[in-house]
Task: inverse folding
């Protein structure tokens, strides 16, 4: 066996090894069948020195080399697209992390608004005692304004300055007023009657000003607390018409679920895309496999350049 013969066989083995690696990567049956058939063709030349070794070289030049180049181009394109998918997954994870923090804060808000209602109820009970005793003692619970300071930005709903002005308007003759607080007389009477049993309803904000809304637990009545003036007044739900009650918090929770589901799907898509081969190419490979499996394949090898040209044309397309 001359040196040229040996070199062509060595080059053939290298080409077939590259094809094997790509067939394993893509996990496409037709590629594996082409790889096996290429091995058979190589073995045929290796075991039969009388065959024209140039035909083996021609086979690889016309077919294997173009196929490997095409598959590498597809692999590179797929990896680029997969990289974009994982970039999106990472961005979604960051959004999920940020919004999960907000959802966690919502749980804290739900707990703290119960504590705030207890503070308000205790403060109103003390205010009643202060007013009854004509005392100047400070009636409010410790850090009563901390709740609004912490949660108003994310958890209170917006209202206009006109709506705020309407809500906090009152007639002084209807009020109990002392140095520390002002409360509607009828409101204090109703609070006493129902043993100061109220719960937090909603929070409103207008610029830097906030209003806390409360409702009686036992009856369908509502009142507000305006911390800037330590003011307590009745209000009617009809006065809140026009306020956007869109709950962005539940929306964040929903988005966390949607993004998590989307990421699961993107991971699955990335796995499928990594080894994706366009249908028109697999169909072409099916044709090629049939040709190289033909028992008279070697006799017609010079005509195989038609298929080779199709493979090369694929390399110049914008499919990838």
Result:
């Amino acid at each position: 066996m001359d040196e040229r013969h040996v070199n062509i066989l060595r080059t053939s083995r290298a080409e077939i090894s590259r094809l094997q690696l790509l067939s394993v990567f893509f996990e496409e049956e037709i590629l594996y069948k082409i790889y096996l058939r290429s091995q058979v063709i190589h073995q045929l030349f290796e075991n039969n020195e009388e065959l024209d070794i140039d035909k083996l070289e021609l086979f690889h030049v016309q077919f294997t080399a173009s196929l490997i180049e095409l598959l590498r181009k597809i692999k590179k394109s797929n990896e680029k697209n997969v990289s974009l998918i994982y970039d999106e997954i990472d961005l979604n994870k960051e959004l999920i992390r940020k919004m999960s923090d907000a959802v966690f804060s919502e749980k804290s808000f739900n707990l703290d608004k119960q504590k705030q209602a207890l503070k308000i109820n205790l403060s109103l009970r003390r205010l009643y005692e202060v007013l009854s005793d004509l005392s100047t003692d400070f009636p409010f619970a410790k850090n009563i304004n901390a709740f609004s300071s912490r949660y108003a930005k994310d958890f209170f709903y917006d209202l206009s300055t006109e709506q705020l002005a309407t809500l906090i308007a009152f007639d002084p003759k209807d009020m109990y007023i002392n140095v520390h607080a002002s409360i509607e007389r009828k409101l204090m009477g109703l609070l006493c009657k129902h043993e100061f049993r109220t719960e937090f309803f909603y929070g409103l904000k207008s610029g830097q000003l906030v209003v806390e809304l409360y409702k009686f637990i036992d009856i369908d009545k509502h009142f507000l607390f305006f911390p800037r003036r330590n003011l307590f007044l009745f209000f009617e739900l009809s006065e809140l018409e026009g306020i956007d009650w869109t709950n962005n918090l539940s929306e964040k929770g929903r988005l966390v679920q949607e993004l998590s589901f989307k990421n699961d799907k993107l991971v699955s898509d990335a796995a499928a895309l990594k080894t994706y081969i366009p249908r028109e190419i697999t169909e072409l490979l099916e044709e090629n496999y049939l040709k190289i499996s033909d028992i008279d394949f070697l006799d017609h090898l010079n005509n195989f350049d038609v298929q080779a040209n199709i493979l090369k044309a694929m390399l110049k397309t914008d499919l990838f």
